[in-house]
Amino acid sequence: MSDWELIFTMLGEKATTDIAKTRDAQGFDENKEAAQRGGQIASNARKELEQETKKSVVSKNNFLGLTQKKKIKDDKNVK
Prior knowledge:
This protein has helices at about 5-20, 25-55, 65-79. It is an all-alpha fold. The protein has one domain (about 5-79). α1 runs antiparallel to α2 (about 25-55). The model has no long low-confidence stretch (mean pLDDT about 85).
């Protein structure tokens, strides 16, 4: 995960938390609305940055893929 991916993920999570607290969200449906709005805020910010820089924020780097490769390497070294 790139720095920008992490930043926008954190932005979405923080926005969601603050929206839920501000609205005193109770139950699944209200929290779902807060999560959708928080995600939309992060998405809008990401799209604006991509438009300004003409570069994609989303990378092909995937943490799960990296750990899987490391595990395969480690397994080969154990034998």
